[in-house]
Specification:
By secondary structure, the protein is mainly alpha-helical. It contains six helices and three strands. Strands 1-2-3 form a three-stranded antiparallel sheet. A hairpin with a 5-residue loop joins strand 1 and strand 2. Helix 2 packs antiparallel against helix 3 and helix 3 packs across helix 5. The longest helix is centred in the last third of the chain and has 20 residues.
C-alpha cells in the first residue's frame, strides 16, 4: 500500500542541513494549490530560526488555482466590482433588474461585508447578517440581500476564490405570518361616497 498523498496546503517532514559558516537550512516538500509538490527551504542561524523562516515562507505561498480577477484574499468590494461587470457582460437581466441588484448590493450588503476578504466570509457571518436584517428591517429586504449575496459569492466559487458558497448552507429564512385586516364601516362608507361622486 502506497504512502498517503500529502493534502493540499500542507508539508511533509522537515530536514535540517548545516551550511558553511554555521547557518542551518530547513527543507520540506509542500503540496501547492495546483496539486504539485514542490521543495521549499529557508535558512537561519539555528534549527529553530530556520524552522521559523521556513514556516513564514510556507504561509506566504501564492495560490496557483485562482488565476482570475478575484482570489480568497480579494476584498468583498473587489468581488462586487467584478460581479457587476459580469452581469453587464452576460446581458441576461433586464436593465431594471440589474439596477435593483446593484442597489440592493450597495445599500444592504456592502456596509456589512466591505471590510472582509472573501476567505473570511463564513456561513455564520452570512446567516447572522441575513437574519438580523429580517428582524431589524424586513423579511423582504433580507430576502433581496440574500439573493444578491448568493449570486456574488457564486461568482467567487466559479473563480475558485472560495470552495463553496456560504449562502447555500445558511439557515432557512422564515416569512413572518401576515394578519388580515378589514375595512371599518366608516371607511366603506367613504369609498362608496367617492365612487358615487
Amino acid at each position: 500500500m502506497g504512502r498517503p498523498r500529502t493534502p493540499i496546503g500542507t508539508f511533509g517532514d522537515i530536514t535540517y542541513v548545516k551550511m558553511p559558516g554555521g547557518r542551518v537550512r530547513a527543507r520540506t516538500r509542500y503540496r501547492d494549490d495546483d496539486g504539485q509538490i514542490r521543495r521549499v527551504s529557508a535558512t537561519g542561524s539555528s534549527n529553530k530560526d530556520a524552522l521559523r523562516a521556513l514556516k513564514a515562507s510556507l504561509a506566504q505561498r501564492p495560490s496557483h488555482v485562482s488565476t482570475g480577477e478575484v482570489t480568497g484574499d480579494s476584498s468583498f468590494a473587489k468581488l462586487v466590482e467584478v460581479w457587476l461587470e459580469d452581469l453587464a457582460m452576460t446581458n441576461k437581466l433586464a436593465p431594471s433588474t440589474r439596477a435593483l441588484y446593484e442597489r440592493n448590493m450597495r445599500q444592504l450588503v456592502m456596509p456589512a461585508f466591505e471590510h472582509y476578504v472573501l476567505r473570511e466570509i463564513t456561513v455564520r457571518k452570512v446567516d447572522t447578517f441575513v437574519k438580523t436584517l429580517a428582524t431589524t428591517k424586513s423579511y423582504s429586504m433580507a430576502k433581496q440581500a440574500r439573493t444578491v449575496l448568493r449570486l456574488a459569492l457564486g461568482l467567487a466559487v466559479r473563480y475558485d476564490a472560495i470552495a463553496k458558497n456560504p449562502v447555500r448552507d445558511m439557515g432557512r429564512l422564515h416569512k413572518p405570518p401576515t394578519q388580515a385586516t378589514s375595512l371599518t364601516e366608516a371607511q366603506v362608507a367613504r369609498i362608496r361616497a367617492a365612487a358615487r361622486s
